[in-house]
Design a protein that fits this description.
By secondary structure, this protein is mostly beta strands. It is built from no helices and nine strands. A hairpin with a 7-residue loop joins strand 8 and strand 9. The protein starts with a strand and ends with a strand.
């Protein structure tokens, strides 16, 4: 999917909210007028919320304020599920995006 960025610059690998869907940028996308490829399915290495241990198969959400993936559902958008476990000290994890 081609995403038209209307906000802050996005880096490859970062999450992005597109309506009620969550995608992962495949390329850097400049702020305001930039466009770029975003994947809205598949398994991706993503930035996870600090201090959270992730359990394989648990639901994962996109926190559009903190700009990371989290197991906290309140106020966040369902993104998919945790593809493989991650320790609380880990800064990244693997997420399978909803289709």
């Amino acid at each position: 999917m081609i995403y038209q960025n209307a906000g802050a610059a996005l880096t490859a690998g970062s999450g992005v909210k597109i309506g009620l869907r969550i995608g992962v940028c495949l390329v850097d996308i400049p702020a305001t007028t930039g466009t770029g490829a975003v994947m809205v399915e598949g398994v991706h290495k993503v930035v996870k919320a600090a201090s959270q241990a992730w359990t394989q198969g648990a639901l994962v959400y996109w926190d559009d304020t903190a700009k990371n993936f989290t197991t906290t559902s309140s106020g966040n958008t369902l993104a998919g599920y945790i593809f493989e476990p991650a320790q609380s000290a880990d800064t990244v994890g693997y997420v399978k995006l909803n289709q």
